[in-house]
Amino acid sequence: MLDTAAADRALAALRRPATPPVVRDHAPARLLLARVGGRRPHGVSWEVWVRFRAHVRVLADTGASERDLARACVADLAADATTLRLVDVPHDLSDPTRLAIEQWLPVRAALVATLEGSPPPQLWVRAHPSVHPRTGAVAAVGMPITARGLRKAFTEVLAALVGDDPRLATCTVAHVRGLGRGRSAGGDRPRRAPDEV
């Protein structure tokens, strides 16, 4: 009933505009990576700080989820700590990440040594005992830390860092993960330290 020109104008008016792509500002994540190379914040234990540094660096290099990181085992780490296999995909680790992991491994070994029986194979373990909020079950020092526990530890240490540098207040796990999204060993993307701008 409409002529072609009128129909084309009506369709153009009714079309929804394309959803713009989400652009995440990675500046807070880069700031956090620079900060984890510095001194431990007040109120954060040495064991938690060393684990946090290694966790943040691995998160930035791999772009992996907390679930995948919580499943990572020491055996998934290359002997020279240059790659970490997550869900059967090897990821290159930058030199700062390799150093952070090498500092975490002896601390992890000391924490695991407090347990009786076979040591857990997981890379990330608890630095302090914790109580499950619903069941009241106590998880001892040296036991594997869950994905939820990794995220909670990230949030708590970040809160301590914000006291020294308020610019970190907007940083999230997603910001840090975004730095490494799509990187894997031997991939097409050039290998570089995640804190390079």
What are the defining features of this structure?
mainly alpha, single chain, 197 residues, disordered C terminus, two-stranded antiparallel sheet
Give a concise summary.
With 197 residues, the protein is mainly alpha-helical.
Topology:
Blueprint (H helix, E strand, L loop, with lengths): L3 H11 L12 H9 L10 H17 L3 H6 L11 E4 L2 E4 L2 H18 L17 E2 L6 E2 L7 H18 L8 H8 L17
Antiparallel strand pairs: 1-2, 3-4
Helix pairs in contact: 2-7, 3-5, 3-6, 3-7
Overall description:
The protein is mainly alpha-helical and 197 residues long. It has 7 helices and 4 strands. The chain has helices at residues 4-14, 27-35, 46-62, 66-71, 95-112, 147-164, 173-180, and strands spanning 83-86, 89-92, 130-131, 138-139. α3 packs across α5, α3 (46-62) packs across α6 (147-164) and α3 crosses α7. A hairpin with a 2-residue loop joins β1 and β2. Strands 1-2 form a two-stranded antiparallel ribbon. It has a two-stranded antiparallel ribbon with strand order 3-4.
> pLDDT below 50 for ≥5 consecutive residues: which ranges?
187-197
- State the distance separating the first and last CA atoms: 58 Å
Proportion of residues in β-strands: 5-15%
Task: Round the mean pLDDT to the nearest integer and report it.
Answer: 85
Q: Helix and strand string, N-terminal first?
A: HHHHEEHEEHH
Helix/strand/pairing category: mainly alpha
**Count of discrete alpha- or pi-helical segments spanning 4 or more residues:** 7
- With strands numbered from the N-terminus, the spatial order across the biggest sheet is 1-2
Could you give a short account of the major beta sheet? Answer: 2 strands, antiparallel
Number of strands: 4
- Rg over C-alpha atoms, rounded to the nearest angstrom: 21 Å
Quaternary structure classification:
single chain
Morphology: elongated
Helix coverage percent: 40-55%
